[in-house]
Structures are given as C-alpha cells and as structure tokens.
Here is the input.
Amino acid sequence: MELSKVYTEQKEHMEKSIASLKRDFSTIRSGKVTITVLDNIHVDYYGTPTALTQVATVLATDATTITITPWEKKLIKEIEKAIMNARIGVNPNNDGESIKLFFPAMTSEQRKESAKQAKIMGDKAKIAIRNVRKDSNDRVKKLEKDKLITEDQSKKGQDEVQKITDETVKKVDDLVNAKEAELLKI
Here is the structure.
C-alpha cells in the first residue's frame, strides 16, 4: 500500500533530524570538555580546508584540557590560527610539539547560555520535522487526488502522519530537556 511507504519515509527523514540534533548537541560544551567542541574547526592543509581530526591527534587529557598533536610539525601554526578563528572561548598554548587548550570551569552564565543553545538546536530540529510532516501530508493528498486512495483513507493517512510527527517532536523535547538538565547540573 502507498500510505505505508509514506509513513516509512517520513519516519526515516524524522530520524535523520533526531540524529542531526544529537550531533549538534555534541558540539555544545558541557561541564566536562570533549573533543567534539572542535568538530567544526578546519585547518588549511595544502590549500584544502580539512577537519582538525584529519591532520592531528586530538585527545581530552582530563576534564578541562584538550591536547592536539599535529601529524606534521609545520601544521602547528595553521592549527593554532584555526582555533583562534573558531572563537571557542580558549586560547591555544603552543609548546612547539603540540597545542594544549585549557578550558576554565564553566560559570553558571555559560551553562545557561549552553542550555539556550540546546533549546535553539531543538527548535531547528522541530522545524525540520514539521517540513517532513508537510511533505508527507502533500504526498497523502496527492494519492487521494490521483484516486489511489479514498477520502477516508486520506484523512486517516493525515492523522497517522500527525501521530508520527507528535511522537518525534516529543523525542526532541525529551532530548532537549535532558541536555538542558545535564548542562545546568553543577
């Protein structure tokens, strides 16, 4: 049946929105520093913007320190410049061999700001989910217009699309609430 295909594709697209939200969350700094705060940093590697993790070993050596050891010594200045341009809230410390990033403990103000970021990311995910819902409803209406399903089936189909949407939005709300709780916990 055509409707089941609509539901399956809707769920797949909405799951991608959830996965994207989780990836976005990993870039938010929480109490313990993680290397994912560097995910969006790219280094000029022979004229090509390259992800930091593809030109250096990146390790969280403790709760507040990240150590970056470039695979090629001459990249250390490029990495340092990329980190400065990324404005992640810390200055790189270059010892000639590696770069250390010392993150201060987060203030309650920073925690609130990170929680606000998480909420904004959740709102973006909900917008993406609503767009998927619209596409799915349009497909259901087209099936009815093309006489492949009845008006009753179309109504039930749109109800099912809404039910799937509501379930996914609840997942987003749960993820955002959990992330906010994690960020605000001292």
Summary: Residues 108-145 form the longest helix (38 residues). The chain has two domains: 2-27+107-184, 35-102. The helical segments are 2-26, 76-86, 108-145, 151-184.
